[in-house]
Structure formats: structure tokens, C-alpha cells
Amino acid sequence: MEPGQPDMQMILQQAQKMQQQLQQAQAELATAEVTGQAGNGLVEVTITAQLEPRGVKIDPKVVDPEDVETLQDLVAGALQDAVRAAQALQAEKMGPLAGGMDMGGLGLPGA
If DSSP codes are grouped into helix, strand and coil, which group holds residue 98? Predict the structure, then answer.
């Protein structure tokens, strides 16, 4: 191997490690659920990290046949909050992997 050339064995090991970490993160996200809320918890929406709905909980205090719009707004707000929580969880689990392998000092383009 010439000086300054990347160590292919090290690159392959890093790639395998990243693949394992990615698989682990995906497995964790596959079972993770998050809950969003609105109206100080009067409406809660539970979704998976992949944004699949799991449940809606509505406090009877906000069920008013004369004011359906408020309930609709609360459900929408809780859903938005749940989506933000799912995106944050995805970023937390996948973020470190999105940066790719550490190629610093290997003389590769983009390093």
C-alpha cells in the first residue's frame, strides 16, 4: 500500500459497522411510538416513528356538539405535535448515521 492511500480493510470495517448501526436504528424505529398532544393534554394522538396512527384520546370535556371546530383543531394540533416528535426521534436515531463514515485523513474526495 502506498503512503497516503486509504486502508481498504479499515473502510470495509467502518462500512460494516455503519450497516449494523443502521439496522439497529431501523429496528428501534420500527417499534417506537410517540405521542403528541394539544390543549394541555385534552387531545392526544399516538403514532409510530414511521408516522402510522396508533390511537387518539379525547378528554370528554372538549366534546361539544356546538363547537366541533375546536375539537378538530385540537386533533390536528396533537397530530402535528406527534409528527414533530416522530421526526425528532428519527433524527436522534438516524442522525449520527446520516453523516457517513469518517473519511478524514484517508485522502478521499470530500474528506
Answer: helix
